[in-house]
Structure formats: C-alpha cells, structure tokens
C-alpha cells in the first residue's frame, strides 16, 4: 500500500470486502484499504471521530484518553488503546508495532509523512484550512469508508434540532446568545465551534461575533461590555463539571459579574464547547434545550 500523486482509481472496483481504493487527501491521492480495521490516529479529535463511525483506533497519542475531555462512554473505549508518543511527535516504532492498515492525520503533515513507510497516511489539514468540525468528520468517514455510519448520525442530529426548534421557537426568536471562554493575561475569547450548533438551532449570535466566524476572537476584560446585547451566555466546563483555570478566572472577575446576562442568571455552562463529532453536537443541543427552558 503506498501513496500516489495521481488520480488512479484502479482500486475502486475491487471487491467490497477487501482490496484498495483511491482517496483524495491533502497529501495527494492515497491508496487506502477498502475496509480498514486497524487505524492509528495522531490527534484526539480523530479518535473521537472514529468512535462515532463505529471504529476504535488501535493507536492514539499520549493523553488522548483524558476523562475530563470526553464523555465517560468514549473514555471507556479509549482508555486501554495503545499510545504512539506525544501529540505531534508520533513514534514510528510504536506505530509499526501496532501493525496499522492506515494512519489518519489532521494537524501534523510533516511529522506524519514518514509514517507512510509503515502504512498509508491520509492527511486532511485542519490546522490551517479553516474547515469546521463537520467538514473534518466527513473526510474521516470517507477515509475509513464509513460514510453510511455518518449519514445515520447526521440524521439523528437533524431530528434533534427539529425537536428543539419546534418546542422552543418563541425563546429562540426572542433571545441573543454568545459563547465565551477565559484566556491568559486578562483576556477572554468570544466564539467556539459550538457556534455552529447554536446557529443550527436557530439562535441569534450577538457580542459582535461575525456571521462567517465561529471563533476564537480575543478580547480584554475591559471590553466585556461587548456582551451587553446578549440575553444568555455559554461558557465551557470539562466533563468533570469544572471550568478550566482561565475560565474560572473569568467567572470570578468582578466585571463578569456585572454583565446583564450574568446578573439575570442566564450564564450557562456547557461540556460540549468544542466539537469533535455529531455525538458532541447532539449533546450540545440537549444542553441548549435545558438553557432555553430557563428563559
């Protein structure tokens, strides 16, 4: 199995149960197994994407199975998976020992390229492409030939959106929202990939977040009045229910406590502030539904 820079599709007509197929990636057209079963990933987002597609990776970076960063069910499936070295520095010997049939990479093109001597590498740039989470999982589904699984979970997401939009149309129509998180040195950040889900629900996004942006837009605490047009705010917590230290600093700041939505009791926490897959997105819709109930 090897990479190719051409558009050879000679593997596309091989038997459905085996053989190779040609897939266009950001590192050229790559010959991938038709039904990969042993996939190594180089970032934790890719691991969560594969879980949603019904595939447990055989290798992940150190620290991927962090219970504060993912639902318990995902942590249980990843906690015993072999690791391949630090994030961004995959160890070729560790990867080879796992006998993968392909490697999925989204952030580390130069570091993952040498791994093609072990197995074909499908690189889909997320670091600089500006792609959103749903773009990336579609590419992952293509790479592992599980687009049917993706179609199923997308339908569940769309169905859940329809339920919430129908039940809370008045609250959605009469409110303005912004997600934000704490930053270093007296800064906070407006926006998050959660914005994509908020827009899918039909929420109006305020705080000057551009319509073509999801985040993250740096602001100083002195600019916190940018939140004054918001009916409700969303800030992140980890899956243990605790904010990160920088977000806790924001929540403890006296300027935060003067924001109208905060004073009104409409600052809500979300464990699904970052989007890894449609399961995360559905979790976010569930959380937003609870928030809408309180308006």
Automatic annotation (TrEMBL):
The UniProt entry, under InterPro entries, shows: ABC_transptr_periplasmic_BD, Bact_iron-sidero_bind
GO aspect biological process, one term: iron coordination entity transport
List the Pfam families: Peripla_BP_2
Specify the species: Streptomyces uncialis
Print the keywords alphabetically.
Signal, Transport
- Location of the Fe/B12 periplasmic-binding domain: 38-295
Keyword Nucleotide-binding assigned to the entry: answer is no
Q: Which GO terms describe its cellular component?
A: outer membrane-bounded periplasmic space
Provide the organism lineage as a comma list.
Bacteria, Bacillati, Actinomycetota, Actinomycetes, Kitasatosporales
Give the protein family: Belongs to the bacterial solute-binding protein 8 family.
**Localization:** Cell envelope
For this protein, the parts annotated as crossing the membrane are: none
Renumbered to this chain, region (Disordered) spans 1-35
Q: Which named protein is this?
A: Iron ABC transporter substrate-binding protein
Does the keyword field hold Heme?
no
């Amino acid at each position: 199995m090897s990479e190719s820079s051409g558009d050879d599709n000679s593997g596309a007509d091989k038997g459905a149960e085996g053989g190779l197929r040609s897939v266009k990636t950001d590192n050229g057209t790559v010959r991938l197994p038709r039904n990969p079963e042993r996939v190594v990933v180089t970032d934790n987002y890719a691991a969560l994407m594969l879980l949603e597609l019904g595939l447990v990776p055989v290798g992940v970076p150190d620290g991927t199975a962090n219970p504060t960063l993912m639902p318990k069910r995902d942590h249980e499936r990843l906690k015993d998976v072999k690791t391949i070295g630090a994030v961004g520095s995959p160890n070729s010997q560790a990867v080879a020992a796992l006998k993968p049939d392909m490697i999925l990479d989204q952030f580390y093109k130069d570091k993952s390229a040498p791994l093609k001597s072990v197995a074909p590498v499908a690189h889909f740039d997320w670091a600089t492409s500006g792609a959103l989470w749903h773009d990336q999982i579609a590419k992952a589904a293509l790479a592992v030939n599980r687009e049917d699984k993706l179609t199923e979970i997308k339908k569940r997401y769309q169905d859940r959106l329809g339920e919430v939009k129908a039940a809370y149309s008045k609250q959605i129509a009469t409110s303005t929202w912004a997600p934000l998180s704490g930053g270093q040195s007296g800064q906070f950040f407006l926006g998050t990939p959660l914005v994509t889900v908020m827009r899918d629900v039909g929420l109006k996004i305020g705080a000057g977040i551009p319509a073509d942006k999801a985040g993250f837009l740096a602001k100083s605490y002195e600019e916190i009045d940018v939140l004054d047009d918001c009916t409700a705010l969303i800030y992140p917590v980890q899956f243990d229910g605790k904010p990160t230290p920088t977000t806790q600093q924001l929540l403890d700041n006296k300027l935060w406590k003067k924001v109208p939505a905060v004073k009104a009791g409409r600052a809500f926490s979300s464990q699904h502030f970052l989007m890894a897959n449609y399961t995360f997105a559905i979790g976010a819709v569930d959380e937003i539904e609870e928030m809408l109930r309180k308006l």
